[in-house]
Every structure is written in C-alpha cells, then in structure tokens.
Design brief:
single chain, about 70% helix
Length: about 110
C-alpha cells in the first residue's frame, strides 16, 4: 500500500512537471489502480497478471496494458523506493493516522 502511494505521488509530480506534450490522463481512480498494480509487481515475485488486474478493476485488459506502459514511462521505470523513502512515508502515515502503532501495540 505504501509503495503504491509513493508511486502515485511520483506519477502526479511527473505529470505536473512534464515539459513534453500533454498526454491523455487517466482518471484518478485508474492512476491509483495502476500504481497499486506496479507496486504489486515491483514487490511480489508471484504478482497478479494484467488480466487479473483487469478483472479486479473492471477495466479492459488492453486499457490496463496501456496504463501500465504510460505510468512506467512517466515514472522513468523507477518503481522501487529510494534510500529512506519508504521509512519516511511510513513515518508520515504513522504520525498522521497512527496505523502502524495500532498493529504494533497488539500482542
């Protein structure tokens, strides 16, 4: 989940600061789905394939393929967090929502 948020933030930054010709942007929902998909593929050896993601999201598999290619190009294929980036995001989420403390405090 946290890696998907990192990718979504990077994707947003890439789209907003791009000097290239504007490209048709996906909906916010589709951008989130593709970031979840890329995070899954980047962090799990036996990740879901694009057909499975199409079924899960209700988006046609060819659209999933296009979204994946678009996002990878926008992200310049940087799909893993940099040094300390994941810890920074987890810390920020924990500070804001306390979500990791809830799990860590339970026996």
């Amino acid at each position: 989940f946290c890696l998907a948020l990192i990718l979504l933030a990077r994707l947003r930054h890439a789209v907003l600061t791009s000097e290239r010709d504007p490209v048709p942007l996906p909906s916010t929902e589709q951008a989130y789905y593709v970031c979840l998909m890329l995070a899954n593929k980047a962090s799990v050896d036996s990740a879901y394939d694009n057909r499975s993601w199409a079924r899960l999201t209700g988006v046609d598999v060819s659209a999933v393929n296009r979204l994946e290619c678009w996002a990878c190009r926008c992200l310049e294929w940087r799909l893993l967090p940099g040094d300390g980036e994941l810890e920074e995001w987890v810390g920020a989420l924990d500070e804001r929502y306390g979500w990791t403390r809830q799990w860590l405090d339970k026996p």
